[in-house]
Specification:
Blueprint lengths: L3 H28 L1 H39 L2 H17 L5 H10 L4 H6 L2 H4 L4 H12 L4 H9 L4 H29 L27 H22 L1 H13 L20 H7 L2 H7 L9 H6 L3 H5 L2 H7 L4 H14 L2 H12 L5 H28 L1
Helix pairs in contact: 1-2, 2-8, 2-10, 2-11, 3-4, 4-7, 7-9, 7-18, 8-9, 8-17, 9-17, 9-19, 17-19, 18-19
């Protein structure tokens, strides 16, 4: 055993170095070593100034708005309105609607804090509680995604994408429940013996502060939460988006490699072109560069949003793309980077593969539904 770990670490180091050398050699041989380094730095700098701060502005505003909605009972009202839909659509108790609203207004991990609440979790059976990971993730950062998409003047596309994401959330949750029950039938039992279909009122405790102070505290606290979320997406946007851009776009308008931002070697579109008919028919993509968005959304939807300015500048961002991006971006919302940690924190590591499989299928279905729904809306 003592020899195994050092040997394994050595092999991993050598393999990593080999892959790193191969990737940089391929890019550098096409772009030029100096131009490649300059492009990496300029792209990251451009993303920081023109994308990250834009997204942070959105997260601050939406954070303040979501806090106001929570403070003045709008979240509770939405939960009550959505509660009747939970059982027929998701096979979940009505209180699960609160989880969907909270993740929509914030991010995926919000569902974990609710799931760990004993009173909240007592309404669920074990397999239902596990499926909350898929349910909540399908709405993660939804508010930010929709507002960002609307910012490009595509209101219809964003709303159609929202409908696609909701369909994807149903598919993901149901598939997760079915696969868990099939392999682990012992999960079909209540988390607690007594289950009452009720939820504690958020505003049951009388507020001591006046309306103005509650308003002021809400927008300041919500704004701070928005800043934290904006800071959290910086690594994903700068690292992942830069890497994706480097293997997605070519010389751009310059026509030659000169170290400008958003240049690269179009490896991903070249691969996508081999099966271009799949993406054209299923998603309606008019350019294979667009496949970079769903690929990036697998790991971080914030990083995927960072691609939109480049797509828009290239003139390939249309209403259909916005609809598909909204659906896939919301539904997947970086599930590869969050599902494992979320299920591990709930103590159900054994079902991680099932959760990932169900969500992969659901995200693809969400994009397909959004595409054909957008075509239908366009005909009206």
């Amino acid at each position: 055993m003592k020899l195994t770990k050092p040997r394994r670490s050595t092999i991993e180091a050598l393999v990593f170095l080999a892959l790193l050398i191969v990737v940089f050699t391929l890019l550098g041989s096409r772009m030029g070593g100096g131009n490649m380094i300059k492009t990496v730095m300029n792209t990251a700098h451009d993303l920081l100034l023109n994308t990250v701060f834009y997204l942070m502005g959105i997260t601050v505003l939406t954070g303040a708005l979501s806090k106001l909605m929570s403070e003045f009972g709008v979240v509770t009202l939405l939960e009550k309105v959505l509660r009747p839909l939970m059982k027929p659509l998701y096979n979940l108790p009505g209180v699960a609607a609160l989880g969907g609203v909270m993740t929509f207004l914030s991010d995926n991990p919000a569902i974990i804090s609710l799931s760990k609440d004993k009173k909240f979790s007592s309404y669920f059976k074990k397999y239902q509680l596990i499926s909350l990971t898929n349910f909540g993730t399908a709405f993660g950062m939804g508010f930010v995604v929709i507002i960002t998409m609307i910012g490009y003047g595509q209101v219809t596309g964003a709303l159609v994408g929202l409908a696609g994401a909701i369909c994807g959330s149903v598919i993901s949750t149901r598939l997760m429940q079915r696969s868990c029950l099939k392999e682990y039938p012992e999960l079909d039992q209540p988390v607690a013996d007594t289950i009452q279909e009720e939820i504690p009122e958020d505003n049951a405790v009388k507020k001591k502060d006046g309306i103005f102070m509650r308003f002021l505290n809400a927008i300041l606290d919500g704004g701070k939460n928005g800043v934290e979320l904006g800071l959290q997406i910086i690594p994903g946007v700068l690292i992942i988006t830069t890497a994706v851009i480097m293997i997605t776009f070519g010389t751009g308008t310059a026509g030659v490699y000169n170290g400008s931002s958003s240049q690269g070697v179009p490896i991903l579109p070249w691969l996508a072109e081999k099966i271009h008919w799949v993406f054209e028919w299923l998603f309606g993509f008019n350019s294979m560069e667009l496949i970079a968005f769903p690929m990036t959304a697998l790991g971080a939807v914030g990083a995927a949003l960072g691609l939109l300015p480049t797509f828009n500048a290239a003139g390939i961002l249309d209403g259909n793309a916005i609809a598909v991006f909204t659906a896939i971006g919301m539904c997947w919302s970086g599930y590869l980077s969050t599902h494992t940690a979320m299920l591990d924190s709930l103590g159900y590591r054994k079902v991680i593969s099932k959760a990932l499989g169900a969500h992969t299928i659901a995200g693809l279905c969400a994009g397909i539904i959004a595409h054909f729904l957008y075509l239908l809306v366009s005909l009206i």
